[in-house]
């Protein structure tokens, strides 16, 4: 039979269940904190205050979230086409090459609002190109995309080391990074927006690429649910046989979906380079591509969910850094454990509490689960 | 008075907005064959799934042998002596018969002992019920009729006293079905209770003692089989009078629309599935291809519709060849007026996770009617879907509902509506009414005949002989990839049955 689960009202499905899952994740994380001899309640307060307590915290949280939105969208686009792109890390990293070249070439001659579009194009193109080869191998040769994309992460890392100790590095410098970008390649900060609400910000890297991320989230929604291409991608993602039947070319759709996914992954490089460090340095992606997988899963592959999940992970990053600082017993690794628990409960065990909640809803109000609705809707 | 093997009292079960079972009361007498008929979506399968522990009833009571029973998992059902033979077999293809029988019921940690024990037990079952199967045969090498026998053996090996069979004859030849019925009668004589779920009324009349009819989630009647008729049962199922055989006039065949010549198709392993097949399909006629499932009909359809690569031969559509290299664009064939209702609507014809309206454009999503610049014209798509829902009486009439939540018959109507409304010159249909209920069958048959009468060429592939005989103006019989005979619609079932079993061909060869 088709649906073993009764339908829940949308607010319970998309609101209540994730909140419960999150809550359980934090309870279990609390026990871990208890285990290392710290007070879990104080830890929770430090975490949340660190992320949202002060203006600077909020700005940092959103700064981290920006990168995660891009990488989450990248994973989601591929996933809608039935492809598991775990090469976001490499696609984002190699995009730094494009950004580096554009910024070094134009930062002295163009204002930021002209450099920025060029850098967007360069980063997206590099990311897309990096995804193209695995996509082609998958579509034409059946080489599994998970294997090829993860191998391309290593290739990207090597290429970037080569570039950063070679032609991207100023001749006189010992550090494997580009020179600092001039004003023409520095993105304006968005901290003033938060200050409008009365919060004080000392210095935080939140920048205009956050807005680009939100625009991309909207465009991804449009692509997936409102365009023919998105329709074809979803058809292929659900059933390759149905796609074949519908006249959708497997090769074409796999390559296009992966290139869009790669372009989005590439764009995540804009935030840490042009927005924060004002250079391209070794390892600037630092795992954000992989966090994107968790973000996409938690956000249920929907752009709205991805933005929310990205902010949650931004909070864990920012609040976690504060926590590691305030409670020396809690190391960075503990933060990773908490993140892991969130992924476990929100992603992998998503349906654990669902039957109970459904039973609860059914007993409180049969109407809420639609039992009476049949007369009106049917025949 | 005979004792009740199973009593169901006041069973209710809902899935979301759908009340699949409401206040079901049913008593099944020990040692009888009890038929349950009803349209698809009437709630038969749900009811049996509750009995077998796949689902929990929202309310109601189950009694087995007079005792209240709590059946939470299939294991509970098995412990109570209830066995089930599913419509889709639950067998491991590359295991032997013995291994499949003991799977999950191994009597010992060491496989060897379990197998030895099972072997002697199997021999006993074979003797008692006439269920001969080679215990060492590999499942995938057995014909479906024998695979089904293995399923029955599995249930009996687990000590089933009550055997539930869900649509057991869907994949069988008439001869295999007859054999199955003999086995079921033997089981009954040995005191077992058999519950037969089917939508084929003829089977009900032939074999059951009692029959219960379900409609829209309720149990509408229980009759002694001897005292009822096919017509009465059909009326009870649908709630109105139905024509079991659609009336149609003489075909007025026109010019050749589709010409298949010497078509040969091999599957991925290199086995010849379609062997030198030639036939013509003319405007204004329905050609039926009969045959037992797996004799190349599926591959023939796929080759014609450009999905599958053909080794040799040609197919001409309106005098122009169809690309048989497997690289044909099915979209282009649609533009040329070839519509295709695939056999496997779950994986090919539909995307079950999509909303109904999204499926109503599958394959036609390039049509400018459904586009607005670079975007899909959601409003046009939904309005179009609503029109089709009204025209084809698709229920529930909700174009935003997930396709998986429609019953089989309504899913098939979604596909048919999509393909027929494109006004194609040639319509090829695989298994038009597989898993579709009586009321919808009548509707679909009428539609197909209406297409014919409009001068369209219709090719129907079906494993249901009744359907082929009722629809076709010409019948081609396929066996082992070849067309072994052509008959008119007046051909008898026995005659076609022999052709389907390859008998005539073998005699000719000797």
UniProtKB/TrEMBL annotation, chain A:
TM spans (from-to): 12-37, 57-81, 119-137, 144-165, 206-224, 245-270, 334-353
Listed Pfam families: BPD_transp_2
Compartments it resides in: Cell membrane
Keywords in alphabetical order: Cell membrane, Membrane, Transmembrane, Transmembrane helix
GO CC terms in record: plasma membrane
Molecular function terms from GO: transmembrane transporter activity
Membrane topology term: Multi-pass membrane protein
Organism domain of life: Bacteria
Protein name as it appears in the record: ABC transporter permease
Source organism phylogeny: Bacteria, Pseudomonadati, Pseudomonadota, Alphaproteobacteria, Hyphomicrobiales
Automatic annotation (TrEMBL), chain B:
SUPFAM superfamilies, alphabetized: P-loop containing nucleoside triphosphate hydrolases (SSF52540)
Main location: membrane
Gene3D superfamilies membership: P-loop containing nucleotide triphosphate hydrolases (3.40.50.300)
Pfam families in the record: ABC_tran (PF00005)
Keywords from the named record: ATP-binding, Cell membrane, Membrane, Nucleotide-binding, Repeat, Sugar transport, Translocase, Transport
Membrane topology per record: Peripheral membrane protein
Compartments, as annotated in UniProt: Cell membrane
SMART domains assigned: AAA
GO molecular function, one term: ATP binding
Domain ABC transporter: from-to ranges: 6-241, 258-505
One Gene Ontology CC term in the entry: plasma membrane
CDD domains assigned: ABC_Carb_Monos_I, ABC_Carb_Monos_II
Similarity section: Belongs to the ABC transporter superfamily.
Protein name: ABC transporter ATP-binding protein
Organism, as annotated: Mesorhizobium waimense
Lineage: Bacteria, Pseudomonadati, Pseudomonadota, Alphaproteobacteria, Hyphomicrobiales
């Amino acid at each position: 039979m088709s649906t073993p689960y009764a339908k829940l009202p949308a607010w319970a499905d998309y609101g209540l269940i994730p909140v419960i899952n999150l809550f359980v994740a934090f309870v279990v994380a609390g026990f871990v904190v208890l285990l290392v001899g710290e007070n879990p309640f104080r830890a929770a307060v430090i975490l949340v205050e660190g992320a949202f307590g002060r203006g600077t915290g909020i700005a940092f949280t959103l700064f981290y979230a920006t990168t995660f939105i891009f990488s989450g969208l990248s994973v989601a686009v591929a996933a809608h086409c039935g492809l598991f792109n775990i090469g976001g890390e490499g696609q984002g990293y190699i995009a730094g090459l494009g950004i580096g070249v554009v910024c070094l070439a134009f930062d002295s001659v163009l204002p930021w609002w002209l450099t920025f579009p060029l850098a967007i194009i360069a980063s997206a193109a590099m990311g897309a190109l990096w995804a193209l080869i695995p996509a082609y191998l998958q579509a034409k040769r059946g080489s599994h995309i998970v294997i090829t994309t993860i191998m391309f992460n290593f290739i990207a890392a090597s290429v970037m080391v080569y570039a950063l100790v070679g032609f991207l590095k100023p001749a006189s410098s010992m550090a494997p990074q580009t020179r600092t970008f001039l004003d023409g390649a520095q993105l304006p900060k968005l901290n003033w927006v938060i200050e409008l609400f009365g919060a004080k910000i000392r210095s935080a890297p939140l920048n205009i690429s956050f807005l680009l991320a939100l625009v991309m989230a909207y465009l991804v929604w449009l692509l997936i649910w409102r365009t023919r291409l998105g329709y074809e991608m979803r058809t292929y993602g659900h059933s390759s046989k149905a796609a074949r039947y519908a006249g959708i070319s497997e090769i074409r759709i796999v390559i296009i979906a992966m290139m869009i996914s790669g372009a989005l992954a590439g764009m995540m490089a804009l935030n840490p380079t042009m927005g924060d460090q004002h250079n391209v340095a070794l390892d600037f992606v630092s795992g954000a591509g992989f966090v994107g997988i968790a973000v996409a899963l938690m956000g249920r592959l929907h752009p709205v969910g991805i933005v929310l999940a990205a902010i949650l992970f931004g909070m864990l990053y920012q609040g976690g850094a504060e926590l590691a600082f305030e409670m020396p017993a809690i190391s960075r690794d503990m933060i990773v454990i908490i993140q892991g628990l969130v992924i476990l409960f929100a992603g992998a065990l998503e349906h654990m509490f669902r039957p109970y909640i459904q039973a609860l809803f059914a007993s409180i109000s049969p109407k809420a689960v639609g039992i009476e609705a049949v007369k009106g809707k049917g025949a | 008075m005979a004792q009740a093997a199973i009593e169901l009292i006041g069973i209710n079960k809902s899935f979301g907005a759908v009340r699949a079972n409401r206040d079901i009361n049913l008593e099944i007498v020990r040692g009888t064959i009890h038929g349950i008929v009803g349209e698809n979506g009437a709630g038969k399968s749900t009811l049996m799934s509750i009995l077998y522990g796949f689902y929990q009833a929202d309310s109601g009571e189950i009694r087995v042998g007079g005792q209240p029973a709590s059946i939470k998992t299939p294991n509970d059902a098995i412990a109570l002596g209830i066995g089930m033979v599913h419509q889709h077999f639950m067998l491991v293809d590359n295991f032997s018969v013995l291994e499949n029988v003991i799977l999950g019921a191994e009597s010992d940690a060491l496989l060897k002992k379990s197998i030895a024990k099972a072997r002697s037990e199997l021999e006993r079952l074979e003797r008692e019920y006439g269920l001969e199967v080679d215990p060492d045969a590999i499942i995938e090498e057995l014909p479906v009729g024998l695979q089904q026998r293995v399923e029955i053996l599995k249930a009996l090996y687990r000590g089933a006293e009550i055997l539930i069979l869900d649509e057991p004859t869907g994949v069988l030849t008439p001869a295999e079905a007859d054999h199955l019925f003999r086995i079921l009668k033997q089981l009954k004589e040995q005191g077992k209770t058999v519950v037969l779920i089917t939508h084929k009324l003829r089977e009900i009349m032939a074999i059951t003692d009692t029959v219960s009819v379900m409609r829209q989630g309720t149990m509408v009647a229980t009759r002694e089989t001897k005292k009822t008729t096919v017509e009465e049962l059909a009326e009870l199922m649908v709630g109105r009078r139905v024509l079991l055989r659609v009336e149609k006039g003489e075909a007025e065949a026109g010019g050749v629309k589709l010409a298949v010549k010497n078509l040969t198709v091999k599957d991925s392993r290199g086995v010849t599935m379609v062997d030198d097949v030639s036939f013509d399909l003319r405007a204004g006629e329905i050609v039926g291809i009969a045959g037992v499932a797996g004799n190349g009909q599926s591959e023939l359809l796929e080759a014609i519709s450009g999905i599958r690569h053909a080794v040799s031969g040609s197919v001409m559509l309106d005098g122009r060849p169809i690309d048989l290299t497997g690289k044909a664009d099915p979209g282009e064939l649609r533009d040329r007026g070839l519509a295709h209702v695939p056999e496997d609507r779950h994986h090919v014809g539909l995307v079950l996770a999509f909303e109904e309206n999204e499926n109503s454009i599958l394959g036609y999503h390039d049509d400018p009617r459904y586009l607005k610049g670079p975007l899909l014209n959601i409003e046009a798509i939904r309005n179009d879907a609503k029109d089709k829902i009204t025209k084809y009486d698709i229920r529930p009439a909700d174009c935003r509902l997930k396709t998986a939540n429609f019953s089989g018959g309504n899913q098939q109507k979604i596909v048919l509506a999509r393909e027929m409304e494109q006004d194609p010159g040639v319509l090829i249909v695989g298994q038009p009414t597989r898993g579709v209920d009586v009321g919808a069958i009548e509707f679909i048959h009428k539609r197909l005949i209406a297409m014919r009468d409009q001068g369209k060429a219709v090719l129907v592939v079906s494993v249901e002989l009744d359907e082929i005989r009722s629809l076709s103006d010409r019948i081609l019989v396929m066996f082992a990839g070849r067309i072994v005979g052509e008959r008119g619609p007046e051909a008898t079932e026995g005659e076609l049955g022999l052709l389907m079993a390859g008998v005539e061909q073998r005699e000719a060869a000797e």
